[in-house]
From TrEMBL:
Keywords: Kinase, Transferase. The keyword Transferase applies. Residues 4-119 form the Carbohydrate kinase FGGY N-terminal domain. This is FGGY domain protein. It comes from Leadbettera azotonutricia (strain ATCC BAA-888 / DSM 13862 / ZAS-9) (Treponema azotonutricium). GO terms for biological process: carbohydrate metabolic process. Gene3D superfamilies: 3.30.420.40.
Length: 461
């Protein structure tokens, strides 16, 4: 039996075809999630229609019989659609900042907080829609808005979704994961008229419908939750650290208690996830790489050298310089990076910094090591807020291609967590989790079989 898992990331769209019999990922597909060009400095727009086209092409290229489809991906963002689910706008992604744009001497974020008592982080869907309403940017004919995950599920199931999993619903803002209710005062302020429609709450492991070829399509689940579900067979004993464009540390909890510096999120199983999220992880590393790329390009131009700079060569240079530092002078005073270069969930205005610069340590290798340490430190610092809740954790499971491609991240994780670091022997933990959730929803497997299946995936080389 084969189950497909689709992960709609910020940078790439991934599809994994999973064999439920051999517990292997037998086929993988990937395509870029394209940005929509704009001069608007507050906008982070992506091609929603292009995502649908890519999903359709990927599924059509799979020759094995697909028994179910599970979907996950980036959350918080919104797409406006007509009543049939056809997209009328780009995806306003989770990095969108229209909620912090000046509006008559204030911002949509502050106005919404004053009227409802709820401060939504920039990028959350309800705040983005509120800002679009104030600036008259809601497209004509919009009958509803939805997340990109629900858009894809509705496209495959041939009908728009009226309900979302709690993991996705919470990321629009104003959802209480313990009570499983929406803040009605917030909704009434954000959406005072019947249109556009908003999503209700779906039960865990629900079906959105079936494709034209009768393949069951599960209601999507957020990428944080699917990665946790797909990678951790014993959630009480491990935490999940995800390092992608952004960063997250997730710890399972049976109760709805959570530090105020972290976010309590619904989980598809009984219980919750306590999540500490950073806005820049891999993105901060990319910014550092762009600095080196610009320096090399400027030198090549001034020296009139025909130099074609490859991104892979830049990253290899960075790793090489950092390894030289570790080999030749591991005890040298290190640079101290604050990598919150795009703010934090609680402080949009916070910016990054570099400290502890000496005459000897301001070089490429130490810049790379300091940047990586800063990315990991921002995540590791959430342990202090968790206190005794972190005590049962015996290992850190790490997801994200940045870690798999760069052992310097693993070293930093080992230093700062002082726990066993586990790297999955396969790519695509979120897509695997989505595939398993889809298989349970489609009744290809029972929920109780999942822990043993996950452990078998870890055994594969």
């Amino acid at each position: 039996m084969f189950a497909a898992g689709i992960d709609i990331g910020t940078t790439n769209l991934e599809l994994s075809l999973v064999s439920l019999d051999s517990c292997r990922i037998v086929e993988r597909r990937s395509a870029p999630v394209k940005r929509v060009a704009t001069c608007d400095p507050y906008a982070f727009l992506q091609d929603a229609a292009g995502v649908l086209e890519s999903v359709e092409e990927m599924l059509a290229s799979i020759k094995q019989p697909i028994g179910s489809i599970g979907i996950t991906g980036q959350v918080h963002g919104i797409v406006y659609t007509d009543d049939n689910g056809k997209p009328l706008s780009p995806l306003y992604g989770w990095l969108d900042r229209h909620g912090t744009e000046d509006f008559r001497g204030s911002t949509p974020q502050k106005i919404l907080a004053e009227k409802t008592g709820v401060t939504l982080p920039a990028g959350y869907g309800l705040l983005t829609h509120y800002a679009n309403r104030l600036f008259h940017r809601v497209p004509e004919g919009a009958a509803r808005f939805t997340g990109i995950n629900e858009l894809v599920a509705g496209f495959l199931a041939r009908k728009p979704l009226d309900a979302a999993d709690a993991s996705d619903l919470a990321c629009f803002g104003g959802f209480d994961p313990a009570a499983e209710t929406q803040n009605t005062r917030l909704l009434e302020e954000v959406m005072p008229s019947p249109l556009p429609k908003f999503l209700g709450l779906a039960k865990p492991f629900s079906l959105a419908g079936t494709t034209r070829s009768s393949i069951p399509v599960a209601v999507p689940v957020g990428d944080n939750q699917t990665a946790f579900f797909g990678l951790l067979s014993k959630p009480e004993e491990s935490c999940l650290v995800s390092i992608g464009t952004s960063g997250q540390i997730s710890v399972y909890s049976k109760t709805p208690s959570c530090p105020n510096t972290m976010e309590l999120r619904p989980f598809i199983m009984p219980g919750y996830l306590q999540v500490g999220a950073t806005l820049c992880a891999g993105k901060a590393y990319e910014v550092l790489a762009s600095l080196f790329r610009e320096a090399i390009s400027r030198y090549a131009a001034s020296a009139k050298l025909p130099l074609d700079i490859d991104d892979g060569a830049i990253f290899d240079m960075m790793k090489g310089a950092a390894r030289e530092i570790l080999k030749e002078n591991p005890g040298a005073a290190s640079l101290v990076f604050d990598t919150a270069i795009n703010g934090t969930r609680r402080d949009n205005a916070r910016r990054g910094s570099i400290a502890n610069i000496t005459l000897d340590n301001f070089n490429v290798g130490n810049l790379v090591l300091g940047g990586i340490d800063g990315i990991v430190r921002e995540l590791a610092d959430f342990r202090k807020d968790l206190g005794p809740a972190f005590d049962p954790i015996k290992s850190v499971v790490v997801a994200g291609s940045a870690v798999r491609k760069n052992d310097l991240f693993i070293r930093a994780l080992e230093r700062q967590f002082d726990l066993e670091i586990k790297i999955p022997p396969f790519d695509g933990g979120a897509a695997l989790g989505a595939a398993l959730i889809g298989a349970v929803a489609g009744k290809l497997i029972a929920l109780g079989e999942c822990p043993a299946i996950i452990e078998r995936f870890w055994e594969k080389d």
